[in-house]
Design brief:
The protein contains 6 helices and 13 strands. With 283 residues, the chain is of the alpha+beta class. The radius of gyration is 23 Å and the shape is globular.
Length: 283
């Protein structure tokens, strides 16, 4: 009789872990739909409480600064850029880029503008549509607003090991065909990963976007992820390291207007010209 080689401790641990995961996943799959939905909703409520409860739900505006990763067409990291972001929920955003704050993007509902050395211009319609899509799958928008949306269905998708943490998957599906899966750490109930699957209605191709959340710290009673990264269809598209969060500072609606960018450009125009002249002198 041929003797089989005994499993080394590491492989034995892996085998036990995989067996346990399979068993637990099987248990989650045999839950009745109503039970599955109830468990998913319970986990999401635990997550909202872990994020700060009322302090999290009552956030009206957020001011953030940090470093934004820049990626080439191949997905390689090419460098970092400083940024300052002012967000007023649910759909207003104003972002300054670069150490000179001389590149700006502003969004206000269905409208958007950019400012650079060429002046102030409207953001392309395709970019506005993409932003609307991003807002619909943004995890904070889901937890603060969309979780009570008519037509949203819920399912407990089972336990797993995600980013080396024991986690539970919760799945949401909206009335427009988006499937959103959120991995919640069992130890903290905080989100550690979000997967969004969409299908192109014309070409029937599937797109998968994954967002990673890490390095949480409590700020004004709100658990805030100081690192967020995102990839789409296997390619990195976003990475941010945050230095600071400020909540509910009372941002004025006038900040999120084209007029604000026009005012900024009028003040920056001479500086743009000075930079251009310095460049000519160097050449």
């Amino acid at each position: 009789m041929r003797l089989t080689r005994p499993l080394v401790p590491g492989l034995l641990l892996l085998a036990v872990l995989l067996f346990a995961r399979a068993a637990r996943t099987q248990d989650s799959q045999i839950m009745m739909p109503a039970q599955s939905a109830a468990k998913a909703k319970q986990l999401l409520q635990e997550t909202i409480q872990a994020l700060g409860g009322d302090a999290y739900l009552n956030v009206r505006d957020v001011t953030i600064n940090g470093r934004l990763g820049q990626f080439g067409h191949s997905g390689d990291l090419t460098g970092y850029m400083q940024f300052w972001d002012y967000n007023k929920l649910p759909d207003k955003d104003f972002t300054e880029y670069g150490s000179k704050h001389n590149i700006i993007e502003a969004y206000n509902g269905d409208h958007g503008w950019t400012m650079d050395r060429g002046g102030v211009t409207d953001i392309a319609e395709a970019s506005l549509e993409q932003r609307k899509e991003d807002l619909k799958t943004d995890i904070d928008m889901i937890l603060r607003y969309r979780i009570k949306e008519p037509g949203m269905s819920f399912r407990y998708a089972g336990p797993d090991v995600v980013e080396l943490k024991q986690a539970d998957w919760v799945e949401l599906a909206d009335s427009e065909g988006r499937t959103i899966r959120i991995a919640l750490a069992q130890s903290t109930h905080l989100p550690i990963q979000e997967r969004v699957e969409t299908r192109d209605p014309t070409y029937h191709t599937r797109s998968v976007q994954i967002t990673y959340f890490s390095n949480y710290h409590p700020i004004q009673g709100v658990q805030s992820p100081f690192q967020i990264a995102r990839e789409k269809n296997g390619m990195k598209i976003f990475q941010a390291f945050f230095d600071d969060f400020k909540y509910n500072t009372g941002l004025n609606d006038s900040l999120f207007t084209r007029q604000e960018l026009e005012n900024r450009y009028a003040k920056m125009k001479d500086k743009y010209k000075g930079d251009k002249n310095k460049k000519k002198e160097k050449d």
